[in-house]
Protein: AAA family ATPase
Amino acid sequence: MRLKKFSVLNYKVFNTKFSIDFSSENIVILTGRNNTGKSTFLEAINQFYLPTTAKAKIPVECYSNQDENKTIELEAEFVVDSETGETVTIVKKYSNDNGKYFDTQGTEIKRTHELKETLDEILANSPYYITPYMTTEEIDKQVQEIYSQIITAELSKLEMEEFDEEELQAIKSEYLELKSSIPRLLKKLKSKTDFSLSNVSDSVSKSLQSVFSNSSLQLSVQGGESNGFSVSDIVKSTSSSVLIGNMHSSDMPLSTQGTGIQRMSLIYIIQNMIEQGLMGTNSTQKMLLIDEPEAFLHPEAVRALSRSLYAIGSRMPLIISTHSPVLIDLSENHTTIQVFRIGKTEAIELYQSSSSQFDEDDIKNMKLLNYADSYVNEFFFADKIIVVEGDTEYVAFKHFIKERGLNIHVIRARGKATICSLMKILNQFNTRYYILHDIDNHERFTHSTLKAQQTNCYNIYALKEDSTRIFGSVPNLERAIGLGDVPNSKKTETIHRIIHDAVDSSYIQAREKVEKVFNYIFSLENQMSLEHPFIEIIRDKDYENLFTPLLNQERKVLKRKSKAVSKMEQVSFDM
Structure:
């Protein structure tokens, strides 16, 4: 059964009803600022599955505003039939007690309720829940639970499947013999015990008849029937442990290691057991809940963790809360991701992946981007997003954003081909974004170079969505702000002077022009128009108007020159 929707009311920070609708995607990522409830929401899902016991009431700290007069409601909707889409909704309520389960009409689900069997099946598949502050005992308990699940699966296979290997045949034969011999033994014991109990019954009956002066009183002590043993009986008798070693020591308990290693070990255990086919199959509906998986890990470990999470998410439902953009790996094929931003009153679905649009070149571009800029995927956490082509506009825009405290993410593409790859990513997640790139219709370019640049521009426009806005610098940013053509070796110095120079008028004017473009793109001032030589691309003909005059002029030059120069010179000129 897949969790389709989860709602929480009066649980800690959620003093009004807060819900998230999950898609059929296997990986769900919860983002948001601190203290908005990301971790609490995961905790509430886990709380729904926790057993209700008469001895343990839910702590008062779990009630919103610590008011036990309120009723905590944890409502879960599950898909019970993936083909028909049939769902069932169950509500767990805490009213200053240990918690009870109800149907949507408010009837408690007790032993005779029609949903009791469904509820038992749901609770039998409680999620694995990993938090940043798990104790070593809690980690050991998770390992034992995983181990028990594997033992259960293996015993079920012994009963259901046939094996060719002699060793497995022998194990199955021994298991089945044990399973049948124990009931026989218990039956013999019962026969002997029943004889003794019969004597006890007669003796007690006579005593009761005498005390109550009633000769018809009869008491009978009977032994119960036994069907042998169940799989759960074997599981209860097993235990597991995790040992770890290094060059200085060996076989040390995992509990002696640092928090980061403990949690990564647990996640790796889950990943590898999935890959070995020991868990995470379609027949098991276990979820994995991880609160801030990046906690206590150095950057390279976070990258490794990201790869593990995608491997896990391909086989079992995974919900994580995170502050780390690194966990959203752009080079992965995003066909299973749903991303939410948790706010105080609602969860905003930022992105939900659809069918993949990426070819091999796109994947290569995205991998290169990740090497060059670890935080290119911060766009998942930003209010507004802009993709720029070069370093100058990237550094300048980042300066304005920091200066004004804006939540805008700038992605530096370093080339038009990569802009296209990034647009595919942003389009896939239904994102509104802006593009600022160089037109590169430079008068010094040859005919073939101009045609290539025009094609690059058309490729960008072809990926434009209705919510996308594209802006161009004519012919490039440095010339558009009045600095002329700046060689690559001078760009770092130029960027610094654009931002900080308060003396040189050319750099002051350049900074003002960049800032005007920045303000116009993000509608930060009442600026009615975009000043030339910047342009907003509304239709592909806008590109044509920028390139055609230069292309026509180039062709005329070639025709005029062709009579006066040799064939070899024509080729040289064209190059």
Summary: The chain is about 45% helix and 15% strand. The longest strand covers residues 72-81. Residues 357-574 form one domain. The two ends are 64 Å apart (CA to CA).
